[in-house]
């Protein structure tokens, strides 16, 4: 197939600059990349141009073994194609072209780094047996004919291809603008990926992070070799350098609280960590230096995870953004909601190198109020004096379902529960069995005898927490909403307007908030960024820009003014006629004022239609 070739590459040695012939088998990809590598040394053509004989070649010395840390870029390269004929591995014979491509691509995907499975063996004299070669090719003794394929520095399977910039602008007046980007420097450290399996399986990312945080606390000094890993909350763990093991299982015990019934229990988890691959930053460095145009998304994703690790511990994570009431004072939205200020961050490749993009955002959160006060805001009335109607109970039930609350009637215990519903009867009428003999006791008596808590507003319903098999009752006056719960339901028009007012900022205010966020995040003190060799600038990036002149506006030739030049983004429509005016077949004018007479409104309609026709519109009176 056209994907597989045998080449002779003539290079200049890095030490003595003497010509060395290297014969190897490589894969030609769609983007004209030829890759080769082997455990005993090899050559990797990292960048080619179709029809050109100039290439960048990286050589792995034979003493490097399977490690590619000591790869060398040969300073001068001259590649010659000689007898470039197809090589047919045995496993490819008789297959269709699409099947051959799939086999090669699957092997490349598995060979994400140097630990994958090799491609099928290719015998040296296969071509001669098929009658395609008359004799052996002379090869320098310092080199060898390769009989198998493996992958060198990987091409990102999720790479984004950027078109090269065709040039730079010349029109307009030059100026300097500030961008919400902060330049990042990256040292040449190995990024190692490990697979994480937690048993029993946990669906919550926050719980996964709590388990891994406890694991690092317990085992970092000895078992983890003092490494400080970054975790994505699911299946991937990243370290700067290799851990002392390839695969190992750890035991972690956590005291966690059941949100449904509020009981704290110690639970044991088994965490298996297994080596996956070495995340390659070669292509990222090539992108930054301008030697390639596709962005390696795997390496960028690792850097993103590293820079998000500390923020995940400090703030509430929602998507790619983080929120906290400490970033800026929360703003009231009404109906028990408030807006929290947050920030979005993402590592991006730019023409100036890597940069951390930070932008401000806002989101609605449930206000951490006592439940009775929250209910009063939902209903817009005082709930302390009169019992609630059925409609009011349904409204409160919908607003509170799924919300986490903590109890306040116990001094040193702040257990948390998730609300499942609301009782249909008031608290003073609720009774429940206290033992297996079905002895009944009222909720009011139970709280008085058990906790010394006297329920003052027994006319209100109780909160239901727990599952259907075992329902617990909590008085509304003994509960408070837990802070940091995102509101996921639809906002009303008034709340949307309030949120937009908070979000819309002038540039000076936004710049101040972004810089304050960078200072608060303390990237220079971030232990994870320091571990992985990432340095973030604390200054906004300055970018050259141009203020373009306003364009001339073209109007209809039959108008009094055929052209117009806007001034500061504004212009007057008087004496101008649009080129393609719309047609209005049916329209109406509604008079809501008692003081405006019908003849006055009719005159207004005639003048409106006349003005539209002068401006180029077709409107029927």
TrEMBL record:
The keyword ATP-binding does not apply. InterPro entries: ArgoL1, ArgoL2, Argonaute_Mid_dom, Argonaute_N, PAZ_dom, PAZ_dom_sf. Residues 370-483 form the PAZ domain. Keywords: RNA-mediated gene silencing. PROSITE patterns: PAZ (PS50821). GO terms for biological process: regulatory ncRNA-mediated gene silencing. This is PAZ domain-containing protein. Belongs to the argonaute family. Ago subfamily. GO terms for molecular function: RNA binding. It comes from Musa troglodytarum.
């Amino acid at each position: 197939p056209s994907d597989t070739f045998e080449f002779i590459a003539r290079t200049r040695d890095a030490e003595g600059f003497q010509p060395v012939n290297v014969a190897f088998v490589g894969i030609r990809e769609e983007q004209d990349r030829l890759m080769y590598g082997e455990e005993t040394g090899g050559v990797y053509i990292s960048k080619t141009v179709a029809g050109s004989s100039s290439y960048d070649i990286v050589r792995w010395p034979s003493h490097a073994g399977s490690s590619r840390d000591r790869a060398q870029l040969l300073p001068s390269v001259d590649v010659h194609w000689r007898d470039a004929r197809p090589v047919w591995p045995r496993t490819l014979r008789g297959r269709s072209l699409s099947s051959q491509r799939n086999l090669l691509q699957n092997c490349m995907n598995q060979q994400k780094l140097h630990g994958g499975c090799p491609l099928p063996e290719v015998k040296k004299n296969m071509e001669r047996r098929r009658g395609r070669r008359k004799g052996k090719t002379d090869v320098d003794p310092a080199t060898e004919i390769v009989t198998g394929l493996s992958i060198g520095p990987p091409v990102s399977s999720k790479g984004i291809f950027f078109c090269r910039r065709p040039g730079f602008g010349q029109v307009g007046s030059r100026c300097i603008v500030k961008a919400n980007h902060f330049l990042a420097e990256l040292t040449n450290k190995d990024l190692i990926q490990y697979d994480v399996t937690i048993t029993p399986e946990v669906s919550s990312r926050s719980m996964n992070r709590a388990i891994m945080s406890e694991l690092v606390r317990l085992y970092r000094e000895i078992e983890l070799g003092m490494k400080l890993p970054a975790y994505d909350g699911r299946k991937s763990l990243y370290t700067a350098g290799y851990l002392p093991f390839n695969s190992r299982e750890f035991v972690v015990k956590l005291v966690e609280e059941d949100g449904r019934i509020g009981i704290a229990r110690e639970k044991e988890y088994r965490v298996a960590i297994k080596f996956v691959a070495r995340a390659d930053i070669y292509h990222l460095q090539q992108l930054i230096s301008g030697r390639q145009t596709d962005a390696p998304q795997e390496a960028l994703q690792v850097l993103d995870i590293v820079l998000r690790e500390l923020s995940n511990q400090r703030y509430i994570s929602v998507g790619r953004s983080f929120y906290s009431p400490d970033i800026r004072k929360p703003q009231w939205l009404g109906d028990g909601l408030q807006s929290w200020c947050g920030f979005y961050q993402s590592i991006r490749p730019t023409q100036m190198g890597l940069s951390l993009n930070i932008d401000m955002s806002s989101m609605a959160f449930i206000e951490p109020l006592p439940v009775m006060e929250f209910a009063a805001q939902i209903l817009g009335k005082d709930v302390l004096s009169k019992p609630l109607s059925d409609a009011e109970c349904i409204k409160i039930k919908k607003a509170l379902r799924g919300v986490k609350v903590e109890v306040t009637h116990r001094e040193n215990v702040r257990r948390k529960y998730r609300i499942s519903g609301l009782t249909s009867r008031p608290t003073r009428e609720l009774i429940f069995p206290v033992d297996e003999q079905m002895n009944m006791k009222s909720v009011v008596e139970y709280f008085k005898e058990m906790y010394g808590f006297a329920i003052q507003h027994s006319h209100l319903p109780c909160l239901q927490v727990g599952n259907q098999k075992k329902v617990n009752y909590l008085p509304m006056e003994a509960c408070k909403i837990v802070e940091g719960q995102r509101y996921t339901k639809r906002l009303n028009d008034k709340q949307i307007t309030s949120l937009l007012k908070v979000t819309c900022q002038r540039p000076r205010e936004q710049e101040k908030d972004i810089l304050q966020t960078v200072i608060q995040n303390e990237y220079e003190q971030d232990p994870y960024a320091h571990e992985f060799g990432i340095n973030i600038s604390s200054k906004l990036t300055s970018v050259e820009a141009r203020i373009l002149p306003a364009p001339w506006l073209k109007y209809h030739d039959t108008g009094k003014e055929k052209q117009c030049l806007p001034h500061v983004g504004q212009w007057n429509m008087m004496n101008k006629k649009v080129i393609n005016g719309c047609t209005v077949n049916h329209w109406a004018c509604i008079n809501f004022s008692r003081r405006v007479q019908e003849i006055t409104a009719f005159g207004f309609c005639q003048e409106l239609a006349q003005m539209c026709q002068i401006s180029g519109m077709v409107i029927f009176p």
